[in-house]
Amino acid sequence: MSIVNAFTQFTTGSVRVVTRGSVGYFAWVAALLALIVTGLVAYMGQFNEGLIVTGMRDPVSWGFYIGNFTFLVGVAAAAVILVIPAYIYKWKPIKEIALFGELLAISAIAMCMLFVLCDMGRPDRLLHIMPLVGNMNLPRSMLAWDVVVLNGYFYLNLFVVTYMLVSYYRGREPNKYIFTPLVLLSIPAAVGIHTVTAFVYNGLAGRPYWNASILAPRFLVSAFCSGPAVMIVLLQVLRRVTDLEIKREAIWKIAELMAYAMFINLFFLVAEVFKEVYSDTHHLKHLEYLYLGLGDKTALVPWAWTSLIFSVVAFVLFLVPKTRQNVVTLNIGCAMIFIGVFIEKGIGLVVPGYTPSVLGEIYEYSPSTTEILVSAGIFGVGALLFTLTSRVAIAVLRGDFRLRTANQG
Amino acid sequence: MTPKFKRRDVLGAGAAAAGLAMAGCGNELVEAFIKTRLAEMDPKQLETYLADLEAEYSARYGKDVSVDDTQARDGVLFAYGLDLDRCNGNRRCVEACVEENNQSRAGGPSGHSNPIEWIEVFEIPKEKGVDLDEADRYFDRESVPAPGMFYLPVQCQHCDNPPCVKVCPVEATWKEPDGIVVIDYDWCIGCRCCMSACPYGARHFNWSEPNLPAEEMNPNTHVVGNRPRPRGVVEKCTFCIQRTRQGKYPACHAACPTGARVFGNLLDPASEVRQLIERKRVYILKAELNTRPSFFYFYG
To answer: Which partner for A200 in A142, A276, A324, B130 could form a disulfide, CB atoms 3.0-4.6 Å apart?
Structure first.
């Protein structure tokens, strides 16, 4: 059977796989669809009225959308980087870890692209920024580079997972001469997307909160906390529903590595806080706004402390062998790290960069209902995408979903 | 300039595919795709484009609107000077700027309010020096100059090393040969990178449909200057490109009752602005950022 034919059958078969399932599965998908529709309705309002329906204004010109975008680039990057410890520690299902890591990366990048689209003042001019058809300001604009690397990373991962799944579907092992170099390429690409995204902020000399060389390293280590948090939960699910041999030790090892990553992240934070507090220049104000508030402008303070406390607690939970090996505390730790980094790399990164503004104005930003609904809808899209693709992948790995050839009858 | 794929080539090659893909997406999207960047238009395209804009605005505002594209003159490099000793915070410059440049007014039929002012004036205690963290933009303009205070108007500094131009992902903003930093309002995608990059808060975004009442609309416009802007794009001071390229002073300069504002051609040794740089002490706002402004504050 030709590859084209097999691919067609794979596609139609996949549709069958995702449209069958338990009541719980359909309830989950229906809930996600409801979330997506709500987000879409909210976006229609924004599309008609303009970005005025958001909490953003001239002094704080990026907000929740770009914060979520930044956070999700980290998730996309780190899920794939997990291949490195999988290889070093010779975890048995290394290909499967790579596979699901890339599925997560694809969903995360899809969300990233939607967040950027929703943040654009002129979504109708989207093509102006697309490679080849648009007019990209390369090599000078970091955002243009970000579009290039995110697109590249998206298609790279899409190709790798499609290739792997179709191979398994056809009852073959993926050709390691195709698979290995591409997975190896996706590792520096993962580092690349997160570094370039950090550089979008980092290169702005007028914004001292972002113009610190520790920004890109901090991005990477905090991503190495949030991405694996999702993967740990996923690997536990896989252990239950498939006969894949995922050793508990592998999961514990990931948690341990996350503890180290979180330690470095917290250390970087201390380095940043020390520099600002001890120097005591005007640049301190941004950090002050985040953790203490400026006058009566304290919107971010509870979030900042939640993030910090969650990060520290999760660090301890994952550092102590007993708690990282306990299924309850392990998953609590994952949730806390996810939320902690979501705040830190979301509004905790974006908003203080603008507060006070370059002209000293303190405009207190908080996301509007529209922004929250649209964002929830986009997370819904990502979760749905990941649910559906994982379902297909699990069916393939379990052997339930295989190409039927003529001689097999 | 790096050689790059011309959009038109891609259009030629993939017109059918693109056409098919776009067919279901409504006319506006097709138009946005086919539109050429201002900087890439040939003279004929430009002529049609300007005529279309004039027709559109004339119909919308019920008056004869002109949209010109007067180019930079050789041997001209514009620069601005502002005397911090004379400025008394009366804000006439701000009003004149809004009227001249068709900025969005507060309120409006959209139900949202998105007033835009390209010039901001700050009141700062004298002993603080130029410290924007101590600056108040909501000072009482009836009682200026207040004792112990000085006033600092800030607008686009038309940097020689503009961070906003560097970060724009689609080359929708650039520096003209006469030093003016401009925006192609029909190419800007509204990503607002430039607003994050600008250290002077000079760039403003049309968060909603701009509110420009027909009777207040200034019909003498320039294509990258004060022509009405659409929603969702960035705008800023253009040194009144529609006036200054015709040999007139910017509106803020003409409106200033204290004589604090100086404008002219930096390359002309006899110009007022050149004289001030040669004779006075100048102050560069945020000089440490190496943006190299064309805007010089000075002390009388």
So the answer is: A142
Question: Is B125 inside any structural domain?
Answer: yes
In which element (H, E) is residue B120 found? strand B120-125
**Regarding beta strands B181-183 and B204-205, do their DSSP bridges make them parallel or antiparallel, or are they unpaired?**
unpaired
B287: in domain: yes
Confirm if A261 and A304 have CB atoms less than 8 A apart: no
Half-sphere exposure of A29 (CA within 13 A, CB side): 16
Helix (H, G, I), strand (E, B) or coil at B123: strand
3-state class (DSSP) for residue B234: strand
As to burial, measured by CB atoms within 10 angstroms (0-12 exposed, 13-18 middle, 19+ buried), residue A233 is middle
- C-alpha B233 chain-centroid distance: 12
Q: Which residues form the domain of B150? A: 78-298
Specify the pLDDT at position B135: 95
Number of domains in chain B: 1
CB atoms within 10 A of CB B267: 15
B97 touches chain A (CB under 8 A): no
For A203, the closest chain B residue by CA position comes to B197
Pick from A347, A297, A328: which is nearest to A66 by CA? A347
* Identity of residue B11: L
The answer as to whether B51 is a domain residue is: no
Q: Identify all chain B residues contacting A357, using CB atoms and an 8 Å cutoff.
A: 201
- Domains annotated for chain A, with CATH where assigned, are 27-398 (1.20.1630.10)
Please, what's the b/e burial string for B81-118 (b: 16 or more CB within 10 A of its CB; e: otherwise)?
bbbbebbbbbbbbbebbbbbbbbbbeebebeeebebbb
- A157 vs A78, more confident: A157
**Tokens 């691919």 label which residue?**
A7
C-alpha to C-alpha distances, A61 to A15, A209, B273, nearest whole angstrom: 41, 15, 34
Name the DSSP letter for residue B132: G
Contact between B219 and B68 (Cβ < 8 Å): no
- Least Cα distance to A328 among A228, A238, A233 occurs for A233
Phi, psi dihedral angles at A64 (to 5 degrees): -60, -40
Region B32-53: mean pLDDT is 86
Q: What are phi and psi of B212, to 5 degrees?
A: -125, 95
Helix (H, G, I), strand (E, B) or coil at B290: coil
- Residue B270, min C-alpha distance to chain A (Å): 34
CA distance B77 to B225: 17
CA dihedral (A54, A58, A60, A61) positive or negative: positive
CATH number (domain holding residue B200): 3.30.70.20
- Its pTM stands at 0.93
Q: Specify if B270 maps to a domain.
A: yes
Q: Which two tokens stand for residue B271?
A: 């110009």
Q: Between chains, do B32 and A206 touch, taking CB under 8 Å as contact?
A: no
Task: Report chain A residues whose CB lies below 8 A from the CB of B133.
Answer: 282, 285, 356, 360
Looking at the DSSP bridge assignments, the partners of residue A307 are none
Q: ipTM value, please give it.
A: 0.93
Please choose, from the candidates B176, B173, B179, B158, the residue with its C-alpha nearest in 3D space to the C-alpha of residue B235.
B173
